Amino acid sequence: MSAAERFYFEPGFSLRAVGTGDEVRLLNRFCHVFTVEATARENWIEVSGEKEPVAAAVAALQELQELFILRGRTLERSDVETILRRRNSEPVKALWDARVAVGPGKKDILPRSAKQKHYLEAIRKHDMVFGIGPAGTGKTFLAMAMAVNMFLKGEVSRIILTRPARESGEKLGFLPGSLEEKVSPYLRPLYDALFEMMPQEEAAGLISRNIIEVAPLAFMRGRTLNNAFIILDEAQNTTEEQMLMFLTRMGFGSHCVITGDPSQSDLARHEASGLERALRTLDKVPEIGFVFFAPGDVVRHSLLEKIINAYNCSKEE
Questions:
Q1: How far apart are CA 21 and CA 149, in angstroms?
Q2: In a 3-state reduction of DSSP, which class is residue 46?
Q3: Which residue in 85, 131, 152, 161 is a FRET match for 146, CA 20 to 30 A apart?
Q4: DSSP assignment letter at 10
Q5: 155 phi, psi to nearest 5 deg
């Protein structure tokens, strides 16, 4: 059954509020996602097509406008993706309630799916959380947001970010340059996420004072990390010995998040996976949280989910 419905914008809101500079392309994507046709004017959009897709499209416009108001009458392209990826089991208001405040001058971090909201809730509830799933699901980014949030609220006194430098087997001596230059390529993704949460000058000052520490996993050996928020990224590249070493670094007042994607391991064939062993061994420990993301939870470019699914299908053939 065909239907048509006209949605009127609140004052100040239109597709231009998204700031993409390309309303036509955004409208076309909107029509493609919901399999509808739409005509846009200055203060309204008329949506036509089958009854159910039209209702879903209008509901999405309502949520987009609501998010515009919640965000202080601004929007970003990522906000549109939050709305268009209609896999969320909860409305945008519920996602907004789980937002994470980060550094001054930075917008609150909004979970973009129900699974991301569950992940943030798990980190708030548990001292240790495993976030497992494919690239693009926000595992590291959201963990970093929670680390900055807890640090700024005084709940932890330092942030420690680490990952294994597997490509060089953590034997970095043959690489040119200083130690910092040798490990920098492996730690760059952690710096990138950190600088999205805090002004770069402030973050750099905290790093220089070792209040925020970004280091390869080998540097964690022999330490006890108290009152810290610790993130182990790319945990699929840890051996069993490295994972046990890391897990036993956690001290009093600390929070720990371990992220990884078992399908992306760089371990040699003869090396047992520390992440897989930890998941098998610790799954009955109630104080530890486990959140498993699927390809449908990817929140980067919409093409990424299709790429991951295509590769998964090719493995099964």
A1: 32
A2: strand
A3: 85
A4: P
A5: -75, -25
Q: Residue 302 in 3-state DSSP?
A: helix
Query: Is the pLDDT assigned to residue 315 strictly greater than 70?
Result: no
Structure tokens at 63: 């949520």
The radius of gyration of the chain from alpha carbons, rounded to an integer in Å, stands at 22
Among left, alpha and beta (phi > 0; psi -120 to 50; other), residue 210 is left
124-146 residue pLDDT tens? 999 999 999 998 899 999 999 99
Q: What pLDDT, in 10s, does the model give residues 233-280?
A: 999 999 999 999 999 999 999 999 999 999 888 888 888 999 999 999
Residue 238 CB: number of other CB atoms within 10 A? 29
Task: Return d(Cα 168, Cα 153) in angstroms, integer.
Answer: 37
Rounded CA separation 290/41 (Å): 46
How far apart CA 212 and CA 205 sit, in angstroms, is: 9
∠ CA(110), CA(5), CA(77), 5° rounding? Answer: 25
Identify the burial level of 123 via C-beta atoms within 10 angstroms of its C-beta, where 0-12 means exposed, 13-18 middle and 19 or more buried: buried
